[in-house]
Amino acid sequence: MAHPIVLIAGGEEFLAEREVRRILTAVRGVEPTLERRDIDGSSDSAMEQFVDAVSPSLFGETPIVVVDNIEQASDSLQSAVLNAIADPETRTRALLVQKGLVKGRGFIDKIKKSGAEVILVEKPKGKAFDDFIIAEFKSYKRKADPAAVKSLRDAVGDDLRMLSAAVSQLSSDLDAAMISAEDVEKYYEGMSGVPAYVITDHVFERRVSQAITALRWGIEREPNMGPAVIATAINAIRSLLHVVNAPSGSSEADIARMAGVPPWKVRTLRDQARKWRPAELADAALLLTYADASLKGGHIDELGTVEVLDPIQRQALLERVLVEMAQVTR
Question: How far is CA 125 from the centre of its chain?
């Protein structure tokens, strides 16, 4: 850390999280026992938590404080942060993470002008998306031709978290050193088509019978579409969480940018979000994780025996998970 206080700005949540991990890993290379304190800058108790975290301890240890949603900081927290930056003898070490683009712009500008280190994590545009995908493949010692990059964006969309996960999955499951468009299209067959999205839309609208009907129709057309349905549903949960957690007053364009969806999709997501509580979305995510593992690696019984599922069992598993998702209540 060039400065004890770092602002990670730009609003791209996935890249911001990655920068936090990178910095913490670097610092812990020097201080293995470094303590991390996490604070939600939008919470009512954020000011008290920040003061407590940066106060000297009996043993003289100074943790590194990660303050999320710094753009939503209260006036008192803003003052405490700016005072810590201005103090030439400060022992405060903090990562200030800006996740939203709506509030707190004046405060963010003050931080940028204060002398704190600033790391920009803006969502790429145009060709930069392709460069991001190529760099992700490179991190796994793989290459992808331009057609493969385009096919991956067509299948997954422009959500960086999903793209990164897709690259990781492809690199793990495929042996080819050079990933081709054919590899991507075969792996994600059905994902960019209508059936997977029709199925998941029915689920998140809590239309159980329509979801099962669409799933059966889709499997008849593409027997191996199970992973595509799971991936699409996981992506839908992430988008819904962006809608649920969007700051009040956010425009459709702001939410679309955060969720990685086109603006017209935001209205649909808002309608669906009204039907789900955050805890229910968490339960749905757990069900999908279980289904994904079972489809790819097989079902593990109580004795620890792995049972590879046949096509009929795979379909039954998918149907059961989708029904439980659509009906889950807490």
Answer: 18
Q: Which one, of 74, 121, 122, 132, lies nearest residue 95 by Cα?
A: 121
Topology adopted by domain 194-327: Zinc Finger, Delta Prime; domain 3 (1.20.272)
CATH 3.40.50.300 boundaries in the chain: 5-120
Least confident stretch, 213-217, 268-272, 303-307: 303-307
Which of 164, 175, 233 is closest to 199 using CA atoms?
233
CATH 1.10.8.60 maps onto the chain at 127-187
Q: Check pLDDT > 50 for residue 190.
A: no
The terminus-to-terminus CA distance of the chain in angstroms comes to 43
Q: Which CATH architecture has domain 5-120?
A: 3-Layer(aba) Sandwich (3.40)
Let me know: does 166 contact 132? Beta carbons within 8 Å.
no
* Alpha helices by DSSP H, the chain: 13-30, 46-54, 75-86, 105-113, 127-139, 146-156, 160-173, 181-187, 194-204, 208-221, 226-244, 252-259, 263-273, 278-297, 311-327
127-187: CATH topology:
Helicase, Ruva Protein; domain 3 (1.10.8)
Q: What percent of the chain has pLDDT over 70?
A: 88
Return residue ranges of the chain for CATH 1.20.272.10.
Answer: 194-327
pTM for this predicted structure: 0.57
Q: Tens of pLDDT along 262-296?
A: 777 788 888 888 889 888 999 999 999 888 888 87
Look over the chain and give the mean of its residue pLDDT values, rounded to a whole number: 83
